[in-house]
Amino acid sequence: MALPDESSIDDLFSDEAPASSPPDGGPVQARGALTFTCSKCGKKSAHDETVRFCPHCGAPAQAGGSGGPTTVKVLLVDDAAIARKKIGAVLKSLGCSVAEAKDGVEALATVDEVDPHLVVLDINMPNMSGIEVLDELRGKPRYQNTTIVMLTAEADAAVVSEALKHRANDYLRKDARVDQLKERLLKHIGRIRAGG
């Protein structure tokens, strides 16, 4: 995902002349500026003085940083309490903060408040299927690029293929071993933390 041009935003926070973009397309740096990284969107920006909030999305910013959020916020959606407990424990062991929803209706009602970097979404739920929730989220500009991983209890290739057609990023088997879940989730969490 390409980053927007940051030079015009940096000008609002700097008394110096705008810096030109580095040849590698990285973040704009003003002479003698401090680099700040957003805790939510992971974008970096350079400023002559301390800033507390990201000029891109308004979330808290911190000096330095690796390019992505320190704590990845996850919305875990599943009607089965045992699945939420298992997947939630795995996510927490990977350093994520986890908010839970018991079905798709509750997920859509709380998603803006949670503001997740990652959504883990069961495919088969009452009231509203995971595919319907996925379509709703992808229909909102705010969640078009959010990482969404589907949960399935089935090994049916058609079910998985359907989820991927609706722009899910990946899928997890509920009956997978904990180490397998960790390995698969860590790929997405690592990319989010790196700001990708």
What is the fold-level CATH name, i.e. the topology of the largest domain? Rossmann fold
Global shape: globular
User: What is the topology, as strand order, of the major beta sheet?
Assistant: 5-4-6-7-8
Structural class: alpha/beta
The portion of residues assigned to helices is 25-40%
Task: Write a brief structural summary.
With 196 residues, this protein is α/β, with parallel strands linked by helices. It has helices at residues 7-12, 81-93, 104-114, 130-138, 157-165, 178-193, and strands at 34-38, 44-47, 61-63, 73-77, 97-101, 118-122, 147-152, 170-173.
Walk me through the structure:
With 196 residues, this protein is α/β, with parallel strands linked by helices. It folds into two domains: 1-66, no CATH class; 73-193, Rossmann fold. The protein has helices at residues 7-12, 81-93, 104-114, 130-138, 157-165, 178-193; strands at 34-38, 44-47, 61-63, 73-77, 97-101, 118-122, 147-152, 170-173. β1 and β2 form a beta hairpin. The longest helix has 16 residues, at 178-193. The protein is globular, with a radius of gyration of 19 Å. The protein starts with 6 loop residues before the first helix and ends with a helix. The relative contact order is 0.13. Residues 1-33 have low confidence and may be disordered.
